[in-house]
């Protein structure tokens, strides 16, 4: 109910041509409401924080009307909201975002090339696929090749036994 009264007063002052006074009045009333809550120390709610962040974007003298919090605190809130906003967007998993998966045929072709030619690694296989007109990055080829077991190399003992004569 109190927010509705504050909103009505704000609209009335804005309509009469006193925008700066209306915005300052709203900021001061918000802080007064925080003081009047039954707490030893005034605590701002999430709505209060949002209002002060929006106020800093709209009104250029917003720092002069702050008494409950420091202007640096409001700037920190803005940065936190910005960080949370973009973190939320980047964590959304929707169809069509990100790198498309490699087709099963291409994956099978890469594995076949690696098993038939055990000395070929990602750069060579990538080059061969490029000559065939298959577009896949060398990094993707190297990721697929991680699952291919390399042939066991000759031990030193076997090498020395073979070359003793």
Topology:
Blueprint: H1 2-15, H2 19-36, H3 46-58, H4 71-91, H5 104-116, H6 122-131, H7 138-145, H8 156-162
Helix pairs in contact: 1-2, 2-3, 3-4, 6-7
Structure characterization notes:
- The protein has helices at residues 2-15, 19-36, 46-58, 71-91, 104-116, 122-131, 138-145, 156-162.
- The protein is built from eight helices and no strands.
- The relative contact order is 0.06.
- The longest helix has 21 residues, at 71-91.
- The radius of gyration is 33 Å and the shape is elongated.
- It folds into two domains: 2-76, no CATH class; 104-145.
- Helix content is 63%, strand content 0%.
- The N and C termini lie far apart (101 Å).
- It is mainly α.
- The model has no long low-confidence stretch (mean pLDDT 79).
Following the backbone from N to C, one meets helices and strands in this order, namely HHHHHHHH
Q: What is the number of helical segments per DSSP (H or I, 4+ residues)? A: 8
Mean pLDDT: 79
**Helix amount:** 55-70%
Main pleated sheet: none
| Count of extended strands | 0
Structure at a glance:
With 165 residues, the protein is mainly α. Helix content is 63%, strand content 0%. Helix 3 (46-58) crosses helix 4 (71-91).
Keywords:
single chain, 165 residues, mainly alpha, 2 domains, elongated
């Amino acid at each position: 109910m109190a927010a509705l009264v504050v909103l009505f007063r704000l609209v009335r002052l804005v309509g009469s041509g006193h925008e700066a006074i209306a915005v300052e009045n709203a900021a001061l009333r918000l802080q007064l409401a925080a003081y009047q809550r039954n707490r030893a120390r005034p605590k701002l709610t999430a709505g209060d924080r949002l209002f002060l962040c929006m106020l800093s974007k709209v009104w250029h003298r917003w720092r002069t009307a702050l008494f409950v919090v420091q202007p640096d605190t409001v700037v920190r809130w803005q940065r936190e909201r910005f960080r949370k906003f973009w973190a939320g967007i980047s964590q959304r998993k929707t169809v069509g975002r990100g790198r498309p998966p490699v087709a099963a045929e291409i994956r099978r072709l890469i594995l076949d090339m690696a098993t038939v030619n055990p000395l070929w690694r990602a750069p060579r296989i990538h080059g061969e696929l490029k000559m065939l007109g298959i577009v896949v990055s060398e990094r993707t080829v190297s990721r697929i090749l991680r699952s291919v077991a390399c042939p066991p190399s000759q031990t030193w003992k076997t090498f020395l036994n073979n070359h003793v004569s």
